[in-house]
Structures are given as C-alpha cells and as structure tokens.
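Protocol step 4 of 5: obtain the predicted structure for the target chain.
Materials: sequence only (see below). No template structures provided, no constraints applied. The aim of this step is simply to have a reference model before the mutagenesis design in step 5. Sequence pasted as it appears in the construct record:
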Amino acid sequence: MALTGPDETDLLLPLLTGSTEEHPFSTFLTRVQRRCDALYAALFIRAGAGEPLSYWVGPDLRQRARELGLAELNELDRVQYDLLRPGRVYASQEYYDADPVRRAQRMRHMARLGVTDERSVRILADPDLSAWLVIASKNSLRAADSALLSSLVPYVAAVLRNAATQDRSRIAEALSEAGNDRAGMGWIAFDRDGTILALPDRTRDNLLAVLNYAPQPGDRAGALSRLAEAEVLAAAHRFHETPNADPIAAVVAAAPRIEALLFPPGAPAEGIIPSPAVIALLRLPRAPSPTRAAGLAHIFGLPRREAELAIALYDGFSMAEAAERLGLTLETTRNYSKKLYSKLGVRGQSELVRLVAQSSAVLA
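Step 4 output (structure tokens):
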C-alpha cells in the first residue's frame, strides 16, 4: 500500500517532527490510531540492551495488565517482539503459532484488557537501535490496517535513525562543552569577515561573566574587543592564503586579559551553513575548586596536607606563602616538600608544579 498525498500530510509530517514534541510522537500515533479506528497505538524504541522507551496514545494497556495481575503478558510480549522479522506485520495470534495453548491464553488475557485484535511490526533491528509499531483494537483489524503499518516502516526507520544520530551529536556536544568548561577552555568560530558563526553556550556564559557581554552568532569580532577584531581578521587572511598555516597565539581582550589560539579549521565541511575561516580556542578565567587537593591525594596516594601544599605551589605561592596559607611553620612546609619530591619522583619545585599541572586533579 503506497502512501498518498493526504497520507503524507496526515502522517509523515507529524512523524518527522515527532521527536521534538512535548510528548514524543503523540500526534503521529494519534493519527495512526484514528486511521485504524484503534483503541491504542504505540511506538517502542530501544537503544542497545536497555529498557525500551514507550510512547503511546489511548489507554495504558501495560499498566492495566499489571493492575489485572497480567504482568507476565508484558514480559512475554517483549520476548515475542524481539523475534519479529523486521518489516513484516504480525497479528497477535501469530506470536504463538506452534503453541495453541499459549495462544489461547494470550487471547483471553487480551480480552480482559478490552482488546480483540492487535498488529505489530518491527521497524528496526540494528545492534544499537530497535523499534516496534503496535496497534490494538476492540474490533477486528483490517488488511488495510496491516498495509498501512507496512507502508510506514521505511519512514519511521529513517526518522528514528536520524533522531538517534542527532541525540548522539547532542550528547557528544554536551560532553565536549563540559570538558572544555572543566579545562577553562572555550571556542568561537569566525568567518572571513570576522563574524561569529558559532560558539558553545558555556563559552558565551563565561564571556558574559568576564566581559559583561554575551557574544551571539552574527556579531562581529570587534564586539569582543578591537584586539580581537584585528587578530581574527589577520588570521582569516593568513589562513585563506595558507590553509595549513601554523596556529597564532593572540591576546583578544586586554582587561580582563583573555588569550586565544587562532587556527584554521582544516578541510571545510559541506553544508548549508558557511564553513568557518578561523577557530579561536580561548583560555577563560576559572575559579579553582577546593576539591583539587583531595583529588591529587587520591591519585598519588598522598597525605592531605602534602597534597594541599602541592596545590598551593601549583597556584604560584612561594614556600613561605604556602606555609602561611596552610597554617604551618616554614620548617614543616619544607619537610613536606621534600617528602613530596621523594614520593613523586621529582627533583624540585618546578618539576612538582609541572606534574600537578598535568594531573586530572586540577580539572576538578
């Protein structure tokens, strides 16, 4: 059964936008329910080996089954769904073709739920993504209803694969932002004219806290500072002439001071949004966390006070200033430092500071 023009408007448009609804896919499922005169329509989506996400319209048949003491039905159906051949529409009585006793028992259970007939189709059976579309009715379903489900399979599959790809991209972007934030880093992408093309939300928020200005896509680099505009435009010209040019270390704001590494973006990605000409990797001010010493102590097996001394020296305090900060005598502080050098295998304060700087503890 081929989908008609009205079908595309009635079913496919809600399907395409379904993942962004407050109740995902509710409009699409409602339209399927109405078209099939069904009691219930559901879409089950499972990523990996986890529990499937359930989206449905109509009565909550799974909850009703639990209330009626038929929870086993849910578990058995889940097993049967995994056995369905992708793309083929199944009637509920086909689940147990080789077991008439089990089939009769299931039909009695369905009757208690107010369901006479059911159709299920497995949309996807990828290792990392599976999905099923199910309808249930108080009346006998028609061949046309099965044909409709069959015709929807490739469209639902395409939408779900695209939604999964977007979700993975969002997760990767969120994790990247969190990592950059921990490291006190941010980035801004500029075009050849020095206009901002893109930047993460956390970079914008950090710049707002530092500069009292939140840059937005479409703003010019000059909105950051005159220094930024001059540096970005010079870098854009250089990278246009020499795409493999070395990165440029630059100061993009003087007070407060913000430095950036300007570098070319590499091979441009094709798309409807213009490719950037310059990426600015920013060093942003970040308040130190009081948990850094605890992290350092855990990583290297240090006593807490020795770890606190290592962090103080990393922060730029002299031995005398560190002693005052920690409430220790200078002699005790020097003894701690000697123990630190021995335990960590470093030859002095400079090597100690370098070791701490390379530790994940300072990202806390």
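Step 4 remarks: The radius of gyration is 31 Å. The chain has three domains: 5-170, 183-283, 292-363.
Proceed to step 5.
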